[in-house]
Every structure is written in structure tokens, then in C-alpha cells.
Amino acid sequence: MDDERGVDRLRRLWDFTDLDASERRLRAALREERSDSGRAEVLTQLARIEGLQSRFEEANGLLREAEELAGASDVARVRILLERGRVLRLSGDLDAALPLFEEAFEAALAAGQDFIAGDAAHMAALSGDILAWTARGLELARRSPAAAHWVGTLLNNLGWWHAQRGEQAESLAAYRSSVEAWERHATYPYLREAARVGVARALRALGRAEEALPLLEQAVAWAQAAGHPDRGFHEELASTYADLGRAEEAAEQERLSALAGPGPFAMWQSRPRPPRSDPGS
Amino acid sequence: MRENASDPVARQVDAYNRRDIDAFRSCYAPDTVIEDAVGTILMQGHETMRARYSELFIASPNLRAEIATRIRIGAYVIVEERINGRRDAADEVRVVAIYHVAGDVIDHVRLIR
Predict the structure, then answer these.
(1) CA gap B25, B11 in Å, rounded
(2) How many domains does chain B have?
(3) Which of residues 76-95 of B touch A (CB under 8 A)?
(4) A158 to chain B: which residues are within 8 Å by CB?
């Protein structure tokens, strides 16, 4: 079922900056699947798309369909655990989500699905003890090239966590490491640029706005060129210009922030969509 | 940034800057694995490290590494290093290294760049 041992065969169908295109590819893959367990796997990914748009009822419906089709497939079972956890987390129930991520992690390891295990470690880090789960994710990445992808994400989570605690030097270290890790994965440029904005935010918090400025200008330029202008990027650049006494440029960035979209991650959770009566088709 | 005698990450940077191959090697376990970001093994074991780093140290008289940022998570130390004076790089080289520390030595390194 895998392109190679431990690598997620469905990951290539995802573009996290374009959920509609991702959904089209997943639905096409669903039609082409030859087995019930394969269909169950794809259904879990469609459930994730629903969950990212706060359509939890639809997501849970797809996961119930997946459970009926999964049979004895370990990887389908792991995906169901992981996506059920994600739906719970997005709906605000972190306490219920964490045991599912923990179970998904162990089950993925047992099934040789190291990429998915890395995903579960990342989600457990966001829902539970971030330091312990980041260490587990790094340990997995050390042992398994298939899980190395998750280093950038784990470090990005850590940067955010330190920033929330006011630990800006640690946040800076984590975000910087995340940027470098993402530089190696050109398929996820938005995550790289989001980490770059994290670096800049930490620098500004440390009173180093001049160092933050070129990073933010780079991130904003990337987002515009990529067709994903991001409100958060413009807001951070506006604040940095303001810190540097460049009022006119700050005002221009504030104007652009009002015009820009909220960015892929925020958009996923706020974009309204009509109800769908045939979520599994 | 905490740097002390029991910290192999700090010690190996000091040894690197002195271009002291024996002190540098002593910071690493005999079977240390050094990989790139995607798990390709770049070096494995003391002898390979000795050969590669001895050559670098001899050819780079102005070699200087500095730890710019550092965090520790359990047995992992993640540092951003800025390296100047490498014989194969005209400009400053920036590397993120994830060190796994076992006791008082490093036994695994993942070089992000």
C-alpha cells in the first residue's frame, strides 16, 4: 500500500493551501481504489478535509464509513484513529483527542507506518505534553527517514509554544530550526514562510526589529507571488515597520492586511461551505 | 545558552574552533552517525570523522563556529550554528544541527543544512 516503507502514499494528493483541489484528487483516488480498506483510507482523508472546515458531523460520518470498510487493515485503522483525534481536537475536545493520537502513534509504529506515526506525534504534541511528544517525534525522525519530514513541523509547534510562554529566545531557536528544516521540503513552502514569520516575531519581541524586517518582507513577497496573501504576515510586517518608525509603510501594510485573506490555516476553519448530502460518494 | 564542561555540544564547538581533532572526536560516541535532513548517512564512526574533520581543520586555518540559537528537548539539543572560514565556502555557512546526547557524548547528528 505504500510507495516505500513507512511513507504515506496519500500525502501526495494533499495541497494544504488548496483544499478544493485536494478534495478533487482524493475523490478521484476513492473511485480508483480497488479494495474496501483502500477506500477506507481515502475516506479518512476526506474526513480531514471536512474537519478542517469545522464540518464535524460530516467528518464523523465519513469516519464511520471508513470503519465499516477498514476490515483488518492496520493502516486504515491507524488513519481512523488519527483523523478521529483531529476532529475532536478541532472541535475543542483536546482531552478526548490525546488518547487517540497516542494510540495512533503506537499502532502506526507497529504497522511500520513511520510517516503517520510522525503525524500522530505532532498532533499529540499539540494536544498534550509538547516537550515529551516533540522528543518522541525527534526520536522517530532519528530512526526513520520516512518520519524526517516531521522535524520542521515539530519545531514549528515548539516555536509557537515557547512564544506563548514569553520564552522568545527559545522560540527564535525553534522557529529558525523549523525554517531550515522546511527549506529541505519544497513541497510545503507555506509552512516554511509561516515559520519565517515566527522567527521574525520572536526577533521583534527581543527588540531586534531590524533583523525581523527582511524576513517579513521575504515572507510577504512569497505569499503574494504564490497567490496566498496572508493577513497575519502583513500584520506582523506592519508592526515591525511601526517599531522602526516607518509609519507610512506600516499603514500600507495595515491596508494590505485588510485586503488579504486570513491565510490557509485560518481559512480552513472559517470558510463556509454548503452542506453536502453525499459525503462519502 | 548554557555551556559547560559536561555539555558535549558546547565542547565540540570549542574543539572545532581550536581545530583540535582529538578533543573534537572525544565529544562523540565511537559509532556516531551523522546524517543529512532526509536521513542520508554522511559520516559514521570515529575513523571517518577523524579523516573528514582533520582534512577540514588543516585546510581551514580561520575556521570559526558560533552557536546562534540553542534549545534542549530531552536528550536532543537543537542548535543553529554559524560557521565562517571553511575552506569550501566563501560566505558564512548556517547549519541547524539536531544532536542526540547519550551521557556525556553525542551519538547522532542530523544536519538540516
Answers:
(1) 10
(2) 1
(3) 76, 78-80, 94-95
(4) 71, 73
